[in-house]
Amino acid sequence: MNEKLLIKKAFEAQQLSYSPYSGFKVGAALLGTNGKIYQGCNIENAAFTPTNCAERTAFFKAVSEGQKEFSAIAIVGNKHDVKSGEGEYCAPCGVCRQVMAEFCDPKTFKVFVAKSEDDYLEYTLEEILPLGFNGKNLE
């Protein structure tokens, strides 16, 4: 896996963000085990509750196309006036982490949060969602 390519694709997706209310643009690039990259951006709504995060957009896009197994995701995000390489790392929210838990092996699924293609942190889903709940808990 080329994490720099995944991060580059997340920055591309960030450019498509619909964030007129917060001005906080987020992009995600999700790598399926089939080798395909699924991009997503955050999509806001004036009522806020219907807003969808970039990570979930990427997951829902992939699942709607038949892909249900994933190996990694890259996430980038900042206010619209922050340049690449500046600002903070953008970690996934709790709801997005729960969606990841539905489809990913917490021990092996990689989560990259990046400021640029060269400045990123790498985690496993298990590290960012300890004691996560998934379908195995219902067996």
Describe this structure in words.
With 139 residues, this protein is of the alpha+beta class. It is built from 4 helices and 5 strands; from the N terminus they run αββαβαββα. The chain has a 5-stranded mixed beta sheet with strand order 2-1-3-4-5. The mean pLDDT is 95.
Radius of gyration: 14 Å
The shape is globular
Low-confidence stretches: none
Biggest sheet record: 5 strands, mixed
Q: How is the largest sheet built, in terms of strand order?
A: 2-1-3-4-5
- DSSP, total strands: 5
Count of DSSP H/I helices? 4
The first-to-last residue Cα distance is 32 Å
Strand content: 15-25%
SSE-based structural type: alpha+beta
Fraction in helix: 25-40%
Order of helices and strands: HEEHEHEEH
Average pLDDT level:
95
Give the structure's gist in a few sentences.
The chain has 139 residues and is an alpha+beta fold. Helices cover 27% and strands 24% of the residues.
Topology:
Elements: H1 3-14, E1 24-32, E2 37-41, H2 54-64, E3 70-79, H3 94-103, E4 110-114, E5 120-124, H4 125-128
Parallel strand pairs: 3-4
Antiparallel strand pairs: 1-2, 1-3, 4-5
Features:
27% helix, alpha+beta, 5-stranded mixed beta sheet, 5 strands, globular, 139 residues, 24% strand
